[in-house]
Amino acid sequence: MAIKIDKSICDGCPDYQEGRCERICPGNLIAKEGEKAEMKRPAECWDCVACVKACPRNAISLYLPEEIGGQGTELKVQQNQKRSLWIFDKEDGSRKVYKTG
């Protein structure tokens, strides 16, 4: 599995000294390239989802393996103060949303 950073959405978290994803990644795998975040070594990603949850712009998603969601499925998280929405977007255009909190 690996993450995907949507550069059309990512703004590099200008409100913070470093991007949230860059600070939270336990493998130190994300860095800013110019104004946008970029995955430095995708093969080393632990799939911990920390960056997906931390991104305030919802610019990061995790590709899920076939065993979990099927090939082409992406996991995104939208958070507010009270709950998280776990969004599974499949390649065929279908979507499942789970609420926590």
Structural notes for this entry:
The chain is mainly beta. The chain has a single domain (3-100), classed as Alpha-Beta Plaits, CATH 3.30.70.20. 10% of the residues lie in helices and 33% in strands. It contains two helices and seven strands, in the order βαββαββββ. A five-stranded antiparallel sheet has the order 1-4-5-6-7. Strands 2-3 form a two-stranded antiparallel sheet. The longest helix is centred in the first third of the chain and has 5 residues, at 20-24. The protein starts with a strand and ends with a strand. The model has no long low-confidence stretch (mean pLDDT 86).
Summarize the structure.
This protein has 101 residues and is mostly beta strands. The protein is built from 2 helices and 7 strands, in the order βαββαββββ.
Determine the N-to-C terminus distance.
Answer: 26 Å
Approximately what portion of the residues adopt beta-strand conformation? 25-35%
Q: Please, what is the average pLDDT?
A: 86
Taking the sheet with the most strands, its summary is:
5 strands, antiparallel
Number of domains: 1
Going by helix content, strand content and strand pairing, the class is mainly beta
CATH class, named Alpha Beta
Element order: H for helix, E for strand:
EHEEHEEEE
Helix percentage? under 10%
Unreliable spans: none
